[in-house]
Structure formats: structure tokens, C-alpha cells
Amino acid sequence: MKRVQINTLLLCCAATLLGAGILGAQPKLPQKEIPILAWYGIPADEAKVERFQELKDAGFTLNFRGYSNADEVVKALDAAQKVGVKIIAACPELRNDTEATVKRFMKHPALAGYFLRDEPLSSDFPALGEWARKVQAVDDKHFCYLNLFPNGGKEHLDALGVQSYREYVSRFDREVPMQFLSFDHYPITYDGMKPEWYENLEEFSDESKKAGKDFWAFAMATKHWKYPHPTLATLRLQMFSDLAYGAQGLQYFTYWTPVNSEGFDYEFGPIGLDGRRTVAYDLVRQVNGEIKALSGVFAGAKVKWVRHTGKTIPRGTQRLTKLPEPVDVLETEGLGAVISLLENDGRTFLVIVNRDYQQPMRLIFSADPSVKRILKDGSIVSAGDYTPAMNVDPGDVAIYMW
Q1: Does the N terminus or the C terminus of the chain have fewer Cβ atoms within 10 A?
Q2: What are the pLDDT digits (tens) for 132-183?
Q3: CA distance 51 to 306
């Protein structure tokens, strides 16, 4: 009995020392919460505790779904509360009887905010500003949520009622009081990557910075129209590019597969039309797990600059011409990379995203001995422990810290 007790004590001590990094376990970054939104989330007839647990298990913190009445919203709030997920409320009463509806929802622990509408034209801004102010006059503790169009050509801008995309974002910020800005852009099509995507990230992140507000961005998780099935590489590329540009909230379109309409032919969202998981559920869960492990890099980070490498760089971006001081060599082969310099909690992070979602990227990196490498599980190791040359998987990220 004494030997068993001694062995148990030794095991406990070893576990404690490993957790402290004394017996060789690597130190890790602290984990912070990055909001991750399931757009077109759990429907009213499935708003049950086990469904919200399933959503949470995939790494989501927020559920958004339009419900047909306020009673359905309350039912969803009650179920979500039991597992620690929050709801962005959306129902007709929020528009038709704003004050009473906000008062009904505002004290619920599972409430995150209020949905106003999606993708407005500039002509919609005055009415939306009035509605947002009406909500905030009753409840200034929860956010109003609204998602903006992506960029596009002259015909698109004419439809939005603006001369430039920057005008669209800045006018919205002036006219509609929001706690943060959000936009959708789904860059990967059957024809390849849209050439305007990184330009959109450049402009939106810059306009958000000018407004002094965080921004949220998207990844496409459901096959439809001109968008193919998501892969691990396409999801990583979208999410890590969003984060490299400073996104403080992430969103997936969609979580639940929509019923096919208007020729969009939705298929294989994380939860399928039959209510069962698809392969996309596992892909999204894996990427969200990686984001959570690396949240100490991105949550609350301030972007110093973003640059690009490659024989050609995306439209509207800037080429990397100068390395930050501790870095001696940074070379990429292949299509090229997003290179982002972030500051967070007194540390500097260099984020390198492989822009190619089909092929690995060869990266050659060497730096001062003080530079650390952040592994995908959040572990902090010496960058000098690795050879200078490495492959970064399609769409994936390499991160260094000093």
C-alpha cells in the first residue's frame, strides 16, 4: 500500500512539473477567446441542448439564425445557455416592436447581440442607423450586427450607390453606429482565387482601423453556385489570411446547409440537409481547434503591417522589401505568402500564410537566437532548433515570435 501511495505521489509530482515545463514540456501561449460565428446556424425545430453542444464541439462560440418569432429566439437562448454558446437574435418582432423585443431578450445570459440585416446598399444606411440607435437606446450592453458587401467592379459599386469601396465602408461607419464592422468575401471559386480578395482585406482592415473598430471576416464552408466543396487548405487560407489582416471575429457561411433555392444548389455544409454531420463539420472543427490554440497570437493583436511575397503579388497589396530587425532570412518559393507583423501583449509575431491552397510552399527562415517559433498547438519553441528550410502546407501558417 505504501509503495502504491508513493508511486501515485511521484506521478502527481511529475504531472505538475510537466505542466510547468520543468521536465521538458514546451511552454504554450495563453488561450483567449476569438468569436467564431456559425452563420445560418441551428434552425428553430432543432434548437435543443444537444445541437448547441454539437455546435460548440466544432469550435463555435456564436449561433446566428433567423427565427420566425420571438418565442423561438427565447427557446434557442435557453438551450444555448446550457452549453455556453451565445445567440445573435433575429426575428420579425425585433424590427416591428423593437423596444419591447429588446427588453425581452436583453437580460438573457446567452444573448450576444441583435441582427439587423445582411449586405445593405448605401441607400439603406439612414434607416439602419435609426434602427440601431433605437436598439441601443434600450440596450447598450449587447452589439448590433450587420454584415457588409465585399468589393467589386464599377457595376457593383454603382449598385451599392458609391464611387469606391472605401466610401461604402466609411459611409456605413458614419451613418450606422456599430461596435465592430463585418464583411463577407468568398475568394475561392471553380475558376480559382478571385484577384480582388486581398485588396478587399487591405481596404476593409484599413477602414476599420481608421474607424477605431475591430472587424470580422468570413470563410466559405458550404458548396454552392460557383463555390466548390471546402477543403482543409481553403478553410485555413481564408481564416489565417483574415487573422493576418487583424480580424477579431471569424464567421463561416454556412453551418447548417440551406434548402436549395434560386439555383444556388447548396450542398455539404458542416450539417447537411438531413441534419447529420458532413465531412465539412470535421474540417471546420479542426481549423477552429487550430485557431483556438493560436488565439494568443491573434486575439487583441494590432497589425503593424502586412506584405506579400511571390513573383506576382495580389492586386492592391504591397511587396515585402524589408525584414523586421531580428529576422536575417525570409524567402518563399511557389505562389508566395502573406507576411503580417502583429503586436500583442508586449510580444511581436511574424505570421506567414501560404497563399497557395493547392501546393505546399517552401519557406527559408533564419533569425536571431532570441526568436521563437509557435507550433500549431500553441507551443513555444526555439526557432533555431529547426533547419532554416521547411514546407508550409497549402493554405497553412507558420508563426514566429520575439
Answers
A1: N
A2: 999 999 999 999 999 999 999 999 999 999 999 999 999 999 999 999 999 9
A3: 39
pLDDT score at 262: 76
Could you tell me the CA-to-CA distances from 219 to 274, 369, 371 in Å, in that order?
23, 36, 31
φ/ψ of residue 41, rounded to 5: -85, -135
The SS3 assignment for 192 reads strand
Helix (H, G, I), strand (E, B) or coil at 116: strand
Please give the mean pLDDT across all residues of the chain: 94
DSSP character for 384?
Answer: G
- Can you say whether the dihedral through the CA atoms of 59, 40, 156, 116 is positive or negative? negative
> What is the average per-residue pLDDT within 35-55?
98
pLDDT of 3 above 80:
no
Which residue blocks in 189-231 are alpha helix, DSSP H? 197-211
> pLDDT value at position 263?
79
Q: Please give the Cα distance from 220 to 362 (Å, whole number).
A: 26
Whether omega before 254 lies within 30 degrees of 0, making that bond cis, reads: yes
Q: Mean pLDDT over residues 317-341, rounded?
A: 98
Which parts of 192-290 are beta strand (E)?
A: 192-193, 214-220, 249-253
**Pairing relationship of beta strands 327-332 and 249-253 according to DSSP bridges:** unpaired
How far is it, in rounded angstroms, from Cα 136 to Cα 217?
A: 23
CA distances from 290 to 169, 178, 253, 261, 307 (A): 30, 29, 19, 33, 23
pLDDT of residue 9: 43
Name the nearest CA neighbour of 388 among 396, 400, 376.
Answer: 400
Cα 44 from Cα 255, distance rounded (Å): 14
SS3 state at 127 = helix
CA distance 21 to 18: 5
Amino acid at 332: T
Give SS3 for 343. strand
Instruction: Grade residue 306 by pLDDT with cuts at 50, 70 and 90.
Output: very high
Nearest residue to 352 via CA among 336, 331, 338, 333: 338
DSSP SS3 for 43: coil
Residue 106 grid coordinates = 436583453
Q: pLDDT-derived band of residue 20, with 50, 70 and 90 as boundaries?
A: very low
